[in-house]
Design goal:
Elements: E1 4-9, H1 16-25, E2 29-32, H2 33-41, H3 46-51, E3 59-60, E4 63-64, H4 66-75, H5 80-100, E5 106-110, E6 125-130, H6 133-141, H7 148-156, H8 161-167, E7 170-173, H9 177-198
Parallel strand pairs: 1-5, 1-6, 2-5, 6-7
Antiparallel strand pairs: 3-4
Length: 203
């Protein structure tokens, strides 16, 4: 039986990374979209090779300088579409390779822009990580160097949390570490029980 594909997503400051770590602690294989991009941008990575002809200033010693690339895009935001057209197919290839043999009966796909990019179609179910707006804002502004303007810009590029709630199959509010961990374990049990009963991939 192939692994159940659980999409994990949530806006900035909602606690997605912490929740993903809990799934890993429970023994599940977790694919991290951001980590995949870091691998692609590293020296000798396919992403660096793909970007070099189009963003030569952003590639140094065979690796992508994320700071330089960010500065280039800040000067010319229209080039973001080109960057995405170069990188997204490589990220999808990395994800497909992971899913060939994830090593656990449930494979967690940690994808920040899962709904925005339509990747939920690849998942058997989606878990949305969320939190009250005030808590989200406090968490984000506590990050080093983060400003209210930066936070607002990031939010403008993400689907509103209310819309994500309407699309998700499962929902967890990350109000505390203990309650979130309890939810993660309960969801794993739920998925396994439903699969055993149905003999398939449903949850």
């Amino acid at each position: 039986m192939k692994a159940f594909r659980l999409g994990l997503t949530g806006s900035i400051g909602m606690g997605k990374s912490t929740t993903a770590a809990m799934f890993a602690e429970a023994g599940l294989a977790v694919w991290d979209a951001d980590a995949a991009v870091h691998r692609l941008y590293a020296r000798g990575g396919a992403g660096a090779a793909a970007i070099a002809p189009h963003f030569p200033d952003a590639v140094e010693d065979g690796a992508v300088s994320r700071a330089t690339l960010k500065a280039v895009l800040a000067r010319d935001p229209a080039r973001l579409a080109l960057l995405e057209s170069l990188i997204h197919p490589l990220v999808a290839k990395d994800r497909a390779a992971f899913l060939q043999d994830p090593g656990s009966d449930i494979a967690v796909l940690d994808i920040p822009l899962l709904f925005e990019k339509g990747t939920q179609t690849e998942c058997d179910a989606v878990l949305l990580v969320t939190a009250p707006p005030a808590l989200q804002r406090a968490r984000v502004l506590a990050r080093p160097g983060m400003t209210g303007a930066q936070f607002a810009l990031i939010l403008s590029r993400q689907m509103p949390d209310a819309e994500k709630r309407a699309l998700a199959d499962h929902l967890v509010e990350t109000l505390s570490i203990a309650s979130t961990r309890a939810y993660v374990w309960a969801l794993i049990d739920h998925i396994r029980a439903r699969r055993a009963a149905a003999g398939g991939n449903h949850a």
